[in-house]
Amino acid sequence: MSDEDDLRAEVRELRAEVDALHTRIAALESERNTDPPPSAKDEAASTAVRSDTAAAESRSPSDSEPAPETGEAADGEAPPDERNWERNIGMKWLGGVGGLALVVGVVFFIRLAIEAGYLGPLGRVLTGTAGGLILLAGGRYAAEAQGYSRWGRLVAGTGLAIAYFSVYAAYGFESYRAAIGAPLWAVLLVLTALVAATAALSVRDHAPAVAGEAFLLGYVTAYVGLDAGSFVVSPAYVVLLTAGLVTIAAVRPWSRLVLGSVLPAYVLHVAWMNRLEPPDTVAAVVLAATFAVYAAGVYVLRASDRTDRWHRRLVEVTTASNAVFAAILLESVVRRLLPTAPDGVAVGAVGLALGGIYAVTESRLRQQNSAAGVLAVVLLAISVILAADPFAETVGLLVLLCGALALGTSRGAGAVRIGGHLVAVGTVAKLLAVDATRLPAFSLADPLATVTGRPATYLLGIAVFYVLGRWFGGASTTVPGIDRELPVAAPYAWTATGLAVVLLGLELSGASLSVAWAVLGLAFVGVGLALDDRGRRLQGVVVLGLVTTKVFLYDTRGLDTLARTLSFLVLGGILLVASYAYARWQGEKPLQRLSG
């Protein structure tokens, strides 16, 4: 007798003794007219014995190793790392490669049938369509009825692709089109029905991946519609697809689907405009409609119950990408449609629309669509740059900057304030890169050029930045996505000082520049001491350090004797005056004053 047979005999004897004990306990309890529940120890012992018995009896005499388990139980008992890679290989990779192999096998089967003369073009289309629909239905059944969701949806997606491209072949391949004679409208109708049915089922089955594949194939259908030679079919199809996505977003807030469709939609519009050259009025209406539909989709996604950070980021990116594509394409169309209108009209219109979206979202949903608020200000700034000459551009940017900061501060609109800060950065860049070279310098011979020239623009920028730095005081702003507050006043004040230094460097040279910088530094130190403003004092010290460096490194070699002498004398005198002012200001407790 083997060890396994001995184990079985011992288990049977133990089970018989336990059953006998249960019988005696039941008899005693019946005599006392009581019926207490079995004790925890007895129940545990009985359960353990029965489990051991079942495990021992399930073993095969010819195989002493335990049989491998399958399904969820085995997966749950495996270590996490082993379970992850095993599941990835078993479900993802094997399933994906299997689906690809199945598609290739279908292709070879159809090729074999063609070579044998069994299938003509119509038979190939019908066979591929039927096979794809069978896979689609089977995958859905496996996902919903049997619980194999990932595998079933992979099979369903494979079947959808096979069915779709089988129908597409009826018109997409010239030989098929000549043999079958299928009209384009019939093929488009079948493809649309297939995409719509799959999208509806995916919404019901909570399968965003299948829905995404269906809509991707829908955009392929829209591209096929370009062959109709009509400027209505393809854009209408794209707008309807986008509206369908927004409708689905009201039921299933799949933000990745909406974001992923933005690029295909606008690329199809570009292909449509380049190939068919529709009237500019029609193109503008189609682009505006697409922008509006996506704006509605963003509103629907924000109104959903999803509040996770990833969802919010996807919605912000959708807002930004929709606005950028619409602004670029509408600007090119409006320039042809209204050649006399100033440039930047369409960009400004999109910016105003984003401002409205930001206001509505904040008032109705109590949420700030940060991307809409920031881009509204930025696009308005771009429209100003496109529409005006360099001097008017700078004036317009400064006005927009002040308006955005005032509105954002008074209304508590953080995104509008951030947009204003971005406009400030752009204004400084324009002053340094454009105005410094394209605008005329100071000249008494041409007063008009001086009033609208480089000194005027720089002085306006310096004044506005100083006023904003004073207005903000100790205020700070929070950048979206960064959990820290950044000061606002100091960057504006230091930028204004930097612009003043640059302006003097552009208008003066040699010893006169050294004298001007020294006087400017002394003025900052004096104002800082008088107002007890540490920031102003530091700005003055920095300017004095700059002019000192220039005098010792450049003026000693680059200037003649008279100019070099003047530079050193003025600099020395000013530095002594500044030092004396510091000494008087410090008083009896210099360290305490400086630290304050």
Automatic annotation (TrEMBL):
Residues 29-44 have a biased composition (Basic and acidic residues). The chain crosses the membrane at residues 93-113, 125-142, 154-173, 179-201, 208-226, 232-250, 257-275, 281-302, 371-388, 422-444, 456-474, 486-506, 512-531, 566-583. Keywords: Membrane, Transmembrane, Transmembrane helix. Pfam families: DUF2339. It comes from the Archaea. Residues 25-84 are annotated as: Disordered. Coiled coil: none annotated. This is DUF2339 domain-containing protein. The lineage of its organism: Archaea, Methanobacteriati, Methanobacteriota, Stenosarchaea group, Halobacteria.
